[in-house]
Amino acid sequence: MGRSLPGTDDLLVIKQTEPAGEPAILHRYDTPEGSHPRPVPGTEGLWQTAATDAPDQDKAVRRAFQRVHTLGKYFDADDLTEGADALIVRSRRDQAHKAVFAGAAFRGGHHRLHIKGARKLTGTARDAECVELVSGVCLFSHQNLRFTDEHGHCAELLRADAAPLAARLRSIVTEGELSFYEYEAVMRQSRVIGDVAAMLPSSLSLTVTVDVPRVQYYLYLLDAFQSGLIATELAQRYFSLVDGRYTRVLDLFCRHIRRALDAAGRTDATVRTAPGLDPLAECLWEAVTTGEVPHDDELLSEMVTTGDPMWKELRELGVPRTRHCLGYTSYLAELLRSAGLSDDTKGALSINVDSFGEVMLFDDARQLRERLGAPDDLPSLGIYAAETVQTLRPDGHPASLYLTDPGRYAVDESGASVDLFRLMDTLYAPPSNVI
Questions:
Q1: Strand, coil or helix: what is 355?
Q2: How many whole angstroms separate alpha carbon 320 and alpha carbon 380?
Q3: DSSP E strands: which ranges in 137-267?
Q4: Based on the number of CB atoms within 10 Å of its own CB, is 295 exposed (0-12), middle (13-18) or buried (19 or more)?
Q5: Interatomic CA distance for residues 264 and 431, integer angstroms
């Protein structure tokens, strides 16, 4: 870039350009001064404010910084302190709704965090017998995997709110390399995991569950397949693309988590892969081969008969009701398992490290814990770091990297090309002095 390489305490913003196909532009903003949030130049819905004890500080910002302070106190970590700024992201649809990410300075790095479950923390992490941490990342991105129908129109199938396919699907195309969304999420969340692990008492055993979807992605095409809008060969190709991408993303994520844990001095930590909906893989492959898709009840029963107590208990609560909720339920099952709802995780401190777009999972899991009568002697924590690079639609409104993935390259304000993957490597290089 034209200036010296940015650090994670800088605010990095990428704005998509029009016409489509032009490189996105990467901007860098320094920490503002003063307690009043100010709009980030050129954006609609992004605000930034300095960390300050001024009495007129925004209440939501003050609470967000208080949660950083409470988290450090809970972990008895003197090296977790408030960062220099806070980022405020306002909803495009409802400007009154906002998410606040308070700066948090760890010994190993800096993040902007939205923290759940810290408001009423009591005791310390030493009250736990072990720590169960769950993290995940989705596959592809909206631009990285493209569906085209017989009329040449792009079809959106990888969104829960996507309209049903209206015409026969003609092709499925994906990029050869990982999306920037996948790479950024892996690098950011691995580093957060390492920084959290470095705060934990060494006496507590630590298990990190890596929850990357695979069979969950198969489900996106089942409705269209049953409607005769996707040929068998194309459905099989899609399943193969998903399997290949799953293997690559899971391997990258596990390697970087392991590297972050080692740098934090937690070589003893266990890294576990979530089973997800793997028990359904064979029957769904058979379904798109024979054309006979199992009924929803059959799929649900298959998960229950695996013997996993989480699925049995959830089914008794009527969760999920249809196959369309199976994927979401599989993610809930891992959060519930980590929170002590199995014999293997009794006395566990549960921590969810993920992207903010998954925060609803935390809230839903907390409600299910209450319905299941789970022990509440230990808290469940959600730690959601803001994306390293805030991405904007052409109209200036922020959107997730998954939906507005700029690709691997952007240009900075001087017009120089920026390799965003290498930028992530630089920003999230393992700390050498954490232990």
A1: coil
A2: 22
A3: 145-149, 154-155, 169-174, 205-211
A4: exposed
A5: 8
For 317-352, what is each residue's pLDDT tens digit? Answer: 889 989 999 999 999 999 999 987 766 667 899 999
Peptide bond just before 394 cis, omega within 30 deg: no
Residue showing tokens 């010994």 = 107
Comparing C-alpha atoms, which of 173, 178, 308, 195 is closest to residue 250?
178
Distance from the Cα of residue 321 to its chain's centroid: 25
Alpha helix (H) residue ranges in 317-415: 326-338, 359-371
Model pLDDT, residue 96: 62
| Burial (Cβ within 10 Å: 0-12, 13-18, ≥19) of residue 149 | middle
Rg of the chain, C-alpha, whole Å: 22
Please state, in angstroms and rounded to a whole number, the distance separating the CA atoms of residues 204 and 270.
12
CA angle 303/223/150 to nearest 5° reads 145
